[in-house]
Amino acid sequence: MRMRSLAIMVTLICLPLGLAGCQTTAHNTFLYKDMPVSNGTAVAGEGNKILFKGNQLALAGSGVKIGDTLRDVKVAQNDLSLVNIAETKGSGKVRIISVVPSLDTPVCEQQTHILSERNKGLDRMVELITVSIDTPFAQKRFAGEAKIANVTFLSDYRGAEFGKTHGLFLEGPSLLTRAVMVIDKTNTVRYLQITPELTQLPDMEEAFQFARRLVTES
């Protein structure tokens, strides 16, 4: 009864204020904030940089680009077992890989909720994946508290091999940069956005639309 009252209260607050970012679902009461969405992309890999509040951060590793095959690298699942990022449960169909620095930050949290809750039914056709450098325990805690059950959480905490292998590793803070990738059924990277400013969201809606077109084509 209390949860129902809370959901009604949030709806009543959002509607008069015209907050398009506010959303409630039957399973979640996450409050979306008005955050900037990047309309551009940086380039992955050694020698390239992104910004964090205007300050430059260097990317490390061999940069991935559209048309490349997703590279073989092990990441950790919630039970600490390792899986090849190219061979997750959704391999052989379209996958969306959302890359975030840390789930315990507001932008990463919202990016992950968007992936889970605003995909407009794509989760029934594609695998949704979040990769971060958080430990598997932290990822599992986050998913439980956020009530997110339709996203595969994979951890790059064991040496950031996913980040380094794809040129998405930030050397200074030892974090992954922010990105979204769409992988087709042949494991080819068909869409890639790396936000030039780390504090901005990627255009998840554009990634969703691209993934939906791939599903329709196949």
Describe the protein:
By secondary structure, the chain is of the alpha+beta class. It folds into two domains: 1-34, no CATH class; 35-217, Glutaredoxin, CATH 3.40.30.10. The chain has helices at residues 2-17, 106-117, 136-146, 161-165, 204-217; strands spanning 49-52, 55-60, 74-76, 82-84, 95-99, 127-132, 152-155, 169-170, 175-176, 179-183, 189-194. The chain is globular.
SSE-based structural type: alpha+beta
Q: What is the CATH class of the largest domain?
A: Alpha Beta
Count of DSSP-assigned helices: 5
Instruction: Provide the succession of SSEs.
Output: HEEEEEHEHEHEEEEH
CATH superfamily of the largest domain: Glutaredoxin
Amino- and carboxy-terminal Cα gap:
44 Å
The CATH topology assignment of the largest domain is Glutaredoxin
- Mean pLDDT across all amino acids: 89
- Beta-strand share of residues: 15-25%
* Sheet with most strands: 5 strands, mixed
Globular, elongated, flat, extended or rod-shaped: what is the shape? globular
> How many domains make up the 3D coordinates?
2
Low-confidence segments, given as residue ranges, are 1-26
Based on CA atoms alone, the radius of gyration comes out at: 17 Å
CATH-scheme architecture of the largest domain: 3-Layer(aba) Sandwich
Number of strands: 11
Within the largest sheet, what's the order of strands? 7-6-5-10-11
**What helical percentage do the residues reach?**
25-40%
